[in-house]
């Protein structure tokens, strides 16, 4: 039941905000959760910002204080996976310079040159993407039997003006060219949900994932065995939900409606 939820895992862009603008109802909802309900965590497939970056970003743009451990990103999950399987390894990376630097700080050697002596190929959201990077990745994947990894399968990233290609679209270009499909490490993997739950004393039954994408946000919650809520303020539409294999527990037009429904359910529980 919605009224019994204590741990709220929010996607960010398209769900509670877009760019530097909070959606109507977001601030009131977050305040209500902190005061009455439990904890709000923020789960993002954007690998260009670290948990520390997001904490600073929320305060600078939203005047909302949240410690870094309340943010879990696909970048964080990817680094933890790499530490486990390729510690100290050499990586071919399609990604921003800031993302590459975070990998270097964690002990990895990083390149985007046509270097066949790499342990894996890793693709992330890259606003600095070049054709040369794509060509080099294709050459390595076609001629080397190395793992093909990606931070997230999102096809498009919401921007204030429209959308831009995200990591999933970059990977589709590579897959169309060389026929290999990556292992995606962020949402819809349940790992992000598991990390958030492990940082609290709440149970999966007390947890809910709220997002605007079915194949990442809602699928992530389903994979983790927790309730989910889709909002039609971003990518998903009611028509898409009707034909999707990823069926949310709840659906609302926007975050304000979710807030109102939560208040009503809480008063009745």
Can you walk through the features of this model?
The mean pLDDT is 95. The protein has a 6-stranded parallel sheet with strand order 5-4-1-13-14-15, sandwiched between helices. It has a 5-stranded parallel sheet with strand order 7-6-8-9-12, sandwiched between helices. The chain has 269 residues and is an alpha/beta fold. The longest helix is centred in the C-terminal third of the chain and has 14 residues, at 255-268. The chain is 41% helix and 20% strand. A hairpin with a 4-residue loop joins strand 10 (156-158) and strand 11.
Coarse shape: elongated
Strand order of the largest sheet: 5-4-1-13-14-15
State the secondary-structure class: alpha/beta
Tally of helical runs: 10
Radius of gyration: 19 Å
Percent of residues in helices comes to: 40-55%
- Spans of at least 5 consecutive residues whose pLDDT stays below 50 are none
Tell me the β content. 15-25%
* Amino-to-carboxy terminus distance: 9 Å
Task: Report the count of strand segments.
Answer: 15
Order of helices and strands: EEEHEHEHEHEEHEEEHEHEHEHEH
């Amino acid at each position: 039941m919605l009224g019994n939820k204590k741990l709220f895992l929010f996607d960010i862009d398209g769900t509670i905000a877009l760019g530097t603008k909070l959606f109507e109802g977001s601030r009131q909802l977050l305040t209500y959760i902190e005061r009455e309900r439990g904890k709000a965590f923020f789960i993002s497939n954007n690998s260009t910002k670290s948990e520390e970056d997001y904490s600073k970003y929320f305060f600078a743009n939203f005047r909302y204080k949240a410690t870094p451990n309340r943010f879990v990103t696909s970048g964080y999950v990817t680094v933890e996976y790499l530490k486990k399987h390729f510690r100290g390894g050499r990586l071919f990376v399609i990604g921003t310079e800031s993302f590459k630097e975070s990998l270097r700080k964690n002990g990895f050697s990083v390149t985007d040159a046509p270097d066949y002596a790499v342990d894996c190929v890793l693709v992330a959201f890259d606003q600095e993407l070049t054709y040369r990077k794509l060509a080099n990745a294709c050459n390595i994947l076609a001629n080397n039997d190395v793992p093909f990894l990606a931070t997230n399968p999102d096809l498009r990233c919401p921007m204030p003006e429209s959308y831009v290609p995200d990591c999933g679209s970059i990977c589709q270009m590579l897959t169309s060219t060389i026929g290999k499909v990556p292992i995606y490490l962020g949402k819809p993997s349940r790992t992000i949900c598991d990390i958030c739950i492990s940082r609290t004393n709440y149970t999966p039954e007390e947890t809910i994932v709220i997002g605007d994408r079915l194949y990442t946000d809602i699928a992530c919650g389903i994979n983790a065995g927790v309730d989910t809520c889709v909002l039609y303020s971003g990518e998903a539409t009611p028509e898409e939900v009707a034909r999707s294999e990823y069926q949310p527990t709840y659906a609302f037009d926007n975050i304000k409606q979710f807030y109102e429904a939560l208040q009503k359910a809480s008063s009745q529980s």
